[in-house]
Write a structure and sequence with these properties.
The chain has 407 residues and is an alpha/beta fold. Helices cover 35% and strands 17% of the residues. The chain folds into two domains: 232 residues, Rossmann fold (3-Layer(aba) Sandwich), CATH 3.40.50.300; 156 residues, Rossmann fold (3-Layer(aba) Sandwich). The strands form two sheets. An eight-stranded mixed beta sheet has the order 3-4-2-5-6-1-7-15, sandwiched between helices. A seven-stranded mixed beta sheet has the order 10-11-9-12-13-8-14, sandwiched between helices.
Length: 407
C-alpha cells in the first residue's frame, strides 16, 4: 500500500490525515492497518519512531466511527468500545495527543485512566459515555475491582509498548483485563522488542495472531550516526566535555545505568555550568513530569536519565543521545538509540566506551572482534530485507476464533 486511501479508511480520517500532511504509510502501518481493518489479531514488532500509534489508531477509529455511522453509537455510560493499554502515564499522555489530533473530524471521545492520577480523577474522566479508554494496567484493574468501568462492550483491545509493560510486571493485570472483555474482542500488541515476558504474553493470548516484524525491528535506523569514544582509566568527564562542546541542532539525552549514576552526572553538569533536568525512577512523579515538560518545551537542552526514558518516550527534536554508561543488554541500547533519528530525521548516538563494553560494541559492529580506537565513527547499519509477515504455527481460524482470546 502506497497511500492511506488504499486502505478503505473513512473520508473523515483521510481528511484528518491530509490536514496533518501525512500521506504515505510507514512500513509497519502498511502491513498492520489492512490486517486490523479485516478484524485479525495482530502482533506488531517495530523499531521506535516507526509510527506504531497510527498503525493501530487508524483502524481502531475507523471501526468505531463506522459503527456510529451505521446507527450503532455508544449509549451506555462507563462502557468504552476500545481500550489502549500503556505502561506509564507519560506514555499515555503521548498517545492521547496523537489520538486528539486524529479525532478532529471523527469527533470520537478518548478518556484517560492512568497511573499517577488519583482514582477520583480517573473516575471523573470515565463518567458518561465515550468510545476509547486509554489506561495503564494497574489503574484499570483497580477500576474493575471497584466496578467503576464496564468492559462488556469492548470491541478492540490494544497493548502499546508491551515490552515496557511486561518489564514492570503487568502480565497478571493484562490477563484480568482481557478476561473482563468479550470473548471475541479483537486484540493487538505492539512492541519495539520481544522480551521473554512479551513472548509469554504472545504465546498465551496471541497464539493465532498475525505477526508483523518491520524490516527495521531490532536494528538502529539508517539515519542514525554513531560515535564510539574510548574512556581511559575510568575518566569519563573529560570525554564528556569534549562531546558537549560540539553543538547539535536540538536537545540531548544523557543515559546512565543507575539512579546514583544519574544524580552524579547531573551534579557534575550543574557544577560545570550546564543546565540539565533529571528523569529517573524513585523520584517524585510530579517532579519527573515537570522535568520532562521542561525538556519537551525546550527550556532545558539536557536530560539526564536512566533506562526509564529509553522506553517509548517520543520527545521532538532530540538530536543526540549520549551513553555516559553503556547498558549491558543490546535491547536497552536499541531503546536508548531510538530516542533520536525518529521518523526519518537524522540523529547521533555517542557512546563512552570502556574495556568492559567490548562485547556490546562487538555486537553493534556486526559481531566482529572489538577494536576500540581513540575514536571510531560509523553509520547505523542500513536496514535490509523486507517486512516479514508470518502466521503462528497453529495457523488461523475464523474471525471470532482468531482473535487470540484465551478461552
Amino acid at each position: 500500500m502506497t497511500s492511506f486511501s488504499d486502505f478503505g479508511l473513512l473520508p473523515s480520517l483521510l481528511k484528518t490525515l491530509k490536514t496533518m500532511r501525512i500521506f504515505k504509510p510507514t512500513d509497519i502501518q502498511g502491513h498492520v492497518i489492512p490486517l486490523m481493518m479485516s478484524g485479525q489479531a495482530v502482533v506488531g514488532v517495530s523499531e521506535t519512531g516507526s509510527g506504531k500509534t497510527l498503525a493501530y489508531g487508524l483502524p481502531l477509529l475507523n471501526h468505531l466511527k463506522a459503527l456510529e455511522e451505521s446507527g450503532d453509537p455508544v449509549k451506555r455510560e462507563n462502557a468504552p468500545r476500545a481500550i489502549v493499554m500503556v505502561p506509564t502515564r507519560e506514555l499515555g499522555e503521548q498517545v492521547a495527543k496523537v489520538f486528539k489530533s486524529l479525532t478532529h473530524d471523527t469527533r470520537l471521545r478518548v478518556r484517560p485512566a492512568l497511573g499517577g492520577m488519583t482514582l477520583e480523577q480517573a473516575r471523573r474522566n470515565t463518567s458518561g459515555s465515550f468510545e476509547i479508554l486509554l489506561a495503564t494496567p494497574g489503574r484499570l484493574v483497580q477500576m474493575l475491582e471497584k466496578r467503576l468501568i464496564d468492559l462488556s462492550d469492548v470491541r478492540l483491545l490494544v497493548f502499546d509498548e508491551a515490552d515496557q509493560m511486561m518489564d514492570q510486571g503487568f502480565l497478571p493485570d493484562t490477563n484480568i483485563v482481557v478476561d473482563a472483555c468479550p470473548v471475541d474482542v479483537q486484540l493487538a500488541l505492539f512492541s519495539a522488542t520481544v522480551s521473554t515476558t512479551v513472548q509469554e504474553l504472545m504465546n498465551d493470548l496471541f497464539s493465532s495472531a498475525e505477526v508483523v516484524r518491520s524490516k527495521g525491528s531490532g536494528k538502529v535506523v539508517s539515519s542514525l550516526k554513531t560515535k564510539n569514544l574510548t574512556v581511559e582509566d575510568g575518566k569519563r568527564w573529560p570525554v564528556m566535555e569534549k562531546v558537549l562542546s560540539q553543538r547539535v541542532d536540538g536537545s540531548t539525552i544523557v543515559f546512565a545505568n543507575t539512579r546514583e549514576q544519574c544524580d552524579k552526572i547531573a551534579k557534575e553538569l550543574t557544577d560545570k555550568g550546564y543546565a540539565c533536568v533529571v528523569y529517573r525512577g524513585e523520584m517524585d512523579k510530579n517532579e519527573r513530569r515537570a522535568n520532562l515538560k521542561k525538556f519537551r518545551d525546550g527550556k532545558a537542552d539536557l536530560l539526564v536519565a536512566t533506562d526509564l526514558a529509553g522506553r517509548g518516550l517520543d520527545v521532538p527534536n532530540v538530536a543526540r543521545v549520549i551513553n555516559y554508561h553503556l547498558p549491558k543488554e543490546m535491547e536497552n541500547y536499541l531503546h536508548r538509540a531510538g530516542r533520536t533519528a525518529r521518523a526519518g530525521r537524522p540523529g547521533l548516538v555517542v557512546n563512552l566506551v570502556t574495556a568492559r563494553d567490548s562485547r556490546l560494541i562487538a555486537n553493534l559492529e556486526g559481531n566482529k572482534p572489538a577494536s576500540l580506537e581513540k575514536k571510531t565513527e560509523h553509520k547505523g547499519k542500513p536496514r535490509v530485507g523486507s517486512t516479514k509477515r508470518f502466521n503462528d504455527s497453529r495457523g488461523k481460524s475464523g474471525y471470532a476464533k482468531s482473535m487470540g482470546k484465551k478461552k
